[in-house]
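wait is this the right file?? whatever heres the structure
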């Protein structure tokens, strides 16, 4: 029987680490986590980019108030490349810059994968320490393209505490935990861990349950990288594209700082 040829992955030039943010379920705040992680890495002094690869539901333009804009194109080394937008200290590129937000994107797998490859390879990222990729929910073509085609430093899996989320998130964990994938599973990040009113930072209300992220981390013997709380201003800050206001809350800022430091430590350890 003929053996399968080993998968050859591309190392993107000038990008030291690619961090994939994934989840088996929508609605867990994955894009907010990806954006918060990217901003936190930049605040730690690392050159950071953020790629919105959620082909069917891009959220990054909303989070950074980048509505109705198209990236400029320049020529470098005889090749046209797109220039990412710069917000909150990070370089940002999204499929949402090229599609009508009011219309559904009806693309088959090869077309979606082709769009992802263009965003990755035809964007002038500059010299980056970290490129954070916000992926779609599930375990589809976008995830497979990233894993099979590019060298990545690791994946962070996002969940919320309740059991309903865990059942779907396990599918994503199992995909990335596969030894044949060749991408380290850095750990679990639990979002919406509890509700803390801004004016009462000592109070915690576990409105979505408790301990789901820790249960998942123990089940797969990976770290729980952090727990991100929510407050009454979080939705407004995200919907209005004011991520800087999100970080004004010290509890939320500290949680994202812990996540960033965990990712930094993991990538340095794995080298």
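ok assuming it is, sequence goes like this
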């Amino acid at each position: 029987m003929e053996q399968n040829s080993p998968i050859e992955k591309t190392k993107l030039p000038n990008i030291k680490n690619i961090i994939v943010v994934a989840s088996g379920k929508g609605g867990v705040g994955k894009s907010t986590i990806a954006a918060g992680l990217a901003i936190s890495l930049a605040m730690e002094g690392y050159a950071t980019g953020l790629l919105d690869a959620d082909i069917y539901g891009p959220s990054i333009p909303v989070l950074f108030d980048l509505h109705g804009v198209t990236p400029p194109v320049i020529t470098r080394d005889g090749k046209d490349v797109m220039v990412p937008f710069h917000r909150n200290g990070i370089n940002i590129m999204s499929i949402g810059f090229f599609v009508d937000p009011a219309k559904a994107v009806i693309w088959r797998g090869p077309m979606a994968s082709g769009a992802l490859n263009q965003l990755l390879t035809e964007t002038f990222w500059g010299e980056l320490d970290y490129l954070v990729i916000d992926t779609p929910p599930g375990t589809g073509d976008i995830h497979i393209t990233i894993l099979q085609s590019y060298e990545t430093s690791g994946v962070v899996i996002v969940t919320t505490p309740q059991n309903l989320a865990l059942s779907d998130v396990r599918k994503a964990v199992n995909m990335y935990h596969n030894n044949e994938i060749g991408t380290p599973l850095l750990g679990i990040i639990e979002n919406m861990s509890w509700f803390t009113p801004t004016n009462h930072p000592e109070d915690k209300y576990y409105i979505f349950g408790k301990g789901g992220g820790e249960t998942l981390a123990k089940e797969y013997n990976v770290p729980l990288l952090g727990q991100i709380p929510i407050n009454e201003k979080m939705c407004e800050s995200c919907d209005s594209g004011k991520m800087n206001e999100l970080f004004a809350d010290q509890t939320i800022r500290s949680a994202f700082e812990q996540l960033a430091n965990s990712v930094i430590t993991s990538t340095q350890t794995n080298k």
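The two ends are 35 Å apart (CA to CA). so i think its the right one actually
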